[in-house]
Automatic annotation (TrEMBL):
Gene3D superfamilies: Phosphatidylinositol 3-kinase Catalytic Subunit, Chain A, domain 1 (3.10.20.90), Ras guanine-nucleotide exchange factors catalytic domain (1.10.840.10). PANTHER family: GUANINE NUCLEOTIDE EXCHANGE FACTOR, RAP GUANINE NUCLEOTIDE EXCHANGE FACTOR-LIKE 1. This is Rap guanine nucleotide exchange factor like 1. Keywords: Guanine-nucleotide releasing factor. GO terms for molecular function: guanyl-nucleotide exchange factor activity. It holds the Pfam family RasGEF. One of its GO terms (biological process) is Ras protein signal transduction. InterPro entries: Ras-like_GEF, Ras_G-nucl-exch_fac_CS, Ras_GEF_dom_sf, RASGEF_cat_dom, RASGEF_cat_dom_sf, Ubiquitin-like_domsf. GO terms for cellular component: plasma membrane. Residues 160-396 form the Ras-GEF domain. Transmembrane segments: none annotated.
């Protein structure tokens, strides 16, 4: 689904009213900032920068691919229209030495790793954050649409578990800190009719999906059974470290990635896992168990003190349930109770980040490489392809 509309401004005027000179200075400083989306721009030096909340007026770098899988890097506003993006791409291609012919009438297409295509209208706005975990933007002529395919490249997960876990926590905290509480309300209660796009919240949700597919991708790429068992141990250890540092977003994302049917069916791999790790993973699965309204998870988060990173999809599920349950009822009392419960959830979100999360770790020589790796995960999000890879590793009759 293609959304359109404006983005939410993450600094509410009810909290801070800057003077005209400060507004002018802030505007000038923001003109100089060009920030990359973490999935679609691959410059290592840029991805190492701390995350900040996005606004529709922000300028970003983004890669737009051509049918031959070369690409141009454009600079545009996050909320700009598709027609503007294509104009920027066309201008770049006209001056490219690798372009044998002048580009004709271009269309903008989102292509997933499974080959699904979505063609954008020239009037569509803010398309960058509507992209899936492993989706690329292509600019092509209409006649080239049918031949567009995605090519995937991967990096081996050769980093230490402690370093990877630390960087997962740091990045999750940066992303979660960028989300204003009102974005949760807009996402659930207003949907496409909202005046503001919950842009930063969408990035957190995409990150959760990305981590899940990353776990499955790394394991299913490992051809050697002993190394696959070792990698399975590493991911369980990463989950334990994320839980220890109260990052429940990556903790449960890793657990759900290991529970992916393409991974859980690898009988020989799981049988080779030491008993201590099997028992630990069973405990993690019980926390991820949705029975009794996610009681195990709720008990865990109730026992933690801030700062912490919650499992954001469950927050949205609670808000959605509250919204749907009140739709069929009317009256001031029902509305009051509804708003009271919403306010309680907003206070909880605010409480989770009432203090700054600090990861205590001595930087190693590979610190920057691990940081870049974690912030630019390469994943397969096509479940059919993952299952096919799984069956090649361990046949169905094994």
């Amino acid at each position: 689904r293609i959304h359109s509309g404006c983005f939410f401004h993450s600094q509410s005027p009810s909290y801070f009213i800057p003077q005209h000179s400060e507004l002018r200075e802030d505007k000038e400083s923001r003109k100089k900032q060009v920030r990359p989306l973490f999935r679609h721009f691959r410059r290592i030096d840029a991805c190492l920068q701390p995350r900040e909340a996005f606004r529709g007026s922000d300028e970003i770098f983004c890669r737009v691919y051509t049918p031959d899988h070369s690409y141009v890097t454009i600079r545009s506003r996050l909320s700009c229209r598709v027609g503007e993006i294509l104009a920027l791409v066309k201008e770049k291609l006209q001056y490219s030495e690798d372009q044998p012919t002048q580009p004709g009438n271009l269309i903008l297409v989102a292509v997933t790793s499974s080959g699904e295509k979505a063609v954008f209208r020239p009037s569509d706005e803010a398309v960058f954050t509507t992209l899936g975990v492993n989706t690329h933007l292509f600019a092509c002529e209409p006649s080239e649409l049918e031949n567009l395919v995605r090519t995937l490249y991967f990096l081996p997960c050769s980093h230490y578990a402690e370093e990877v876990a630390n960087q997962l926590v740091v990045f999750d905290w940066e992303l979660f800190s960028c989300v204003h509480e009102v974005e949760f309300i807009c996402y659930v209660f207003h949907g496409e009719q909202s005046r503001w796009r919950p842009l930063n919240l969408e990035l957190v949700l995409q990150r959760c999906s990305e981590v899940q597919h990353w776990v499955a991708t790394e394991i299913l790429q490992c051809q050697s059974l002993p190394k696959r068992i070792q990698l399975l141990r590493k991911f369980i250890k990463i989950a334990a470290l994320c839980k220890q540092q109260q990052d429940l977003l990556s903790f449960l994302a890793v657990v759900l990635g290991l529970d992916n049917p393409a991974v859980s069916r690898l009988r020989l791999t799981w049988e080779g896992l030491p008993g201590k790790f099997r028992k630990l993973f069973q405990q993690f699965e019980s926390i991820a168990d949705p029975s009794r309204n996610h009681k195990s998870y709720r008990d865990l988060i109730a026992s933690l003190r801030p700062p912490l990173i919650p499992f954001t999809p469950l927050l949205l599920k609670d808000l959605t349930f509250l919204h749907e349950s009140c739709k069929s009822f009317h009256g001031d009392l029902v509305n009051f109770e509804k708003m009271h419960k919403v306010a309680e959830m907003v206070r909880s979100i605010r409480r989770y980040r009432s203090t700054q999360l600090a990861v205590e770790a001595e930087p190693s020589p590979s610190h920057l490489q691990t940081k870049a790796y974690v912030r630019q995960l390469q994943v397969i999000d096509n479940q059919n392809l993952l299952f096919e890879m799984s069956c090649k590793l361990e046949a169905k009759d094994m």
